[in-house]
Predict the 3D structure of the following.
Amino acid sequence: MVQNPSSTTAPSAAGELAGRRVLLTGGSRGIGAGIARRLLADGAQVVTTARTAPATPTEGLTFVAGDIRTAEGIQAIADEALDRLGGIDIIVNNAGAARTFPAGSLSIDPADWQDSLDVNFLAAVRLNTALLPQMLDRGTGAIIHIATTAALEPPAALLHYGAARAALIAYSKGLASELAPRGIRVNTITPGNVTSPGADQVREDLASAFGIEVAAIHASIPIGRIGTPEDIAEAVAYLVSDRASYVTGANLIVDGGELRRP
């Protein structure tokens, strides 16, 4: 088994994103924090948002507290980010949340279905709607949606989460086709098992509910290790850069080969 290189950071294309202004949701920990560090290293100006500030602030990162669960909360975040940076060139819709229901989908109550849709799908729709007009005025921009392999192979215990992220993938593809002629690129990144506080808790909950070891989940990954935030951040850095100027409407699966493909 290859050891998990959690401290490994890919070499940065220093300055590649100089002058680019980024709004990143869910950037206070886990995958989001990794993305923030990577984009900052490339020279971007990054505003991130979450309900609470990170315990250890990242140097150079601007934090805006906000609630992505409501349209009003999203609009407030967008307004403050525009005020701080004067415009947004890149949107990374990363924020997400999943509560496990080991008893199956019928145990998911309506409030949890709605909350999952608000956080894992509608937050991205609302944020894009708030920020796209100023991107379209300039005729340039990039949008990244962070999904999950649970959208492609949804387990019953996370069906509300998988369904919401599946909607995000479909929305992303349609939005990419609509906006490509107007200079805006839209892509999805779909992580598999990646270490982060939220995902680690989900794996622990599932392992406990089904009487297995978390190590068994990690062992199922063909590449021999669990993913790191840096793995996802590297994919984001590529897709928002000019190196990916011909890439739009893509769904890049970053899962160590775990997803069963045809």
Summary: The CA atoms of residues 28 and 54 lie 5 Å apart. The two ends are 26 Å apart (CA to CA). The domain at 21-197+228-252 is CATH 3.40.50.720 (Rossmann fold).
